[in-house]
Amino acid sequence: MKSLFLAGFSAMAILVGVLLALPATGSLSEKFHTPPDSPVPGKVTLVDLGAKTCVPCKMMAPILDELEKEYADRAAILFIDILENPEAGRKYGIQLIPTQIFYDASGKEAFRHEGFLDKAAIVAQLEKLGVK
């Protein structure tokens, strides 16, 4: 039993090491070296605050890229790297990364989530805010 635990732990450590060594992927994470204006006036906005070196953030990058393309004319999907922009972490009161903040079209914060958030959950929040 102990050797099975150690084997599983070792495999997880290797996976984390590989993910940390990978470059950040996706155009969204490469776009914003300075924080974008958010929320975007007149649009439902998702602001994802994280870091290009964070494992769950890397896992979310392709999801955010897909959503940015799918919702380009209906909602704003933004990524801010708080390691490159520490003032953004303070501005948004970030305690944990990734953090997703959803704003309604009037700019009022409607929902906040900490940690990895899958595509279905993001789409559900966008639909809840009226994005079709």
Q: Could you give the order of the helices and strands? A: HHEHEHEEH
CATH class: Alpha Beta
Structural class determined from secondary elements: alpha+beta
Overall geometric form: globular
- Indicate the proportion of strand residues: 15-25%
CATH superfamily: Glutaredoxin
Our count of helices gives 5
Radius of gyration: 16 Å
Low-confidence stretches: 4-26
- Alpha carbon gap, first and last residue: 50 Å
Average pLDDT level: 82
Name the assembly state: single chain
Which architecture does the CATH hierarchy give at level 2? 3-Layer(aba) Sandwich
CATH third-level topology: Glutaredoxin
The order of strands across the largest sheet is 2-1-3-4
Helix share of residues?
40-55%
How many distinct beta strands? 4
Major β-sheet annotation: 4 strands, mixed
Overall domain count: 1
Write the layout of secondary structure elements.
Layout: H1 2-21, H2 27-31, E1 44-50, H3 55-70, E2 75-81, H4 86-91, E3 99-103, E4 109-114, H5 119-128
Parallel strand pairs: 1-2
Antiparallel strand pairs: 1-3, 3-4
Short description:
The chain is α+β, with helices and mostly antiparallel strands and 132 residues long. 43% of the residues lie in helices and 19% in strands.
